[in-house]
Amino acid sequence: MSNSQSDLSPSVAARKRRLSVFAKAGEEALTPLFERFAAAHPIADYTVLRAPEVGTSMVRGRAGGSGAPFNLGEMSVTRMSVRLPSGAVGHGYVQGRSKGAARMAALLDAMAEDGVAESVDDLVTTPLEEAAQSARAARAAKAAATKVEFFTMVRGEG
Prior knowledge:
Elements lengths: L9 H16 L1 H14 L6 E16 L6 E15 L5 E7 L3 H47 L13
Antiparallel strand pairs: 1-2, 2-3
């Protein structure tokens, strides 16, 4: 069975995308958007299923993007799980050691599972994706400015 994005149901694919965005965002980017979301959709009391835990995960890479995989090294990861009074469960896995970001990601995931996924995407996920894309474009433009073109000139025929 293939594990590609196209094989997933739309709701599973949307959740996967949402959790990926939260994982990469960082607490400083996530906090103001979470607060804006919480102001529009107050988050009721919740039960902590898994308290924030900091651990490590092996990061793998591929030479040239398509070569044989190799272990690049370990990175810190923080995870947390919560349950809302409605029974909706949310999980938050984030890069780094931010327990606050893991809590926000878990609560946002639970709220999305509780029926307000469109609002989570509009108020949090989409702005985070747009900020990440802008940062990538800025890095690409900065790198392009330093690009050096090499060429060979041929002198004569023989």
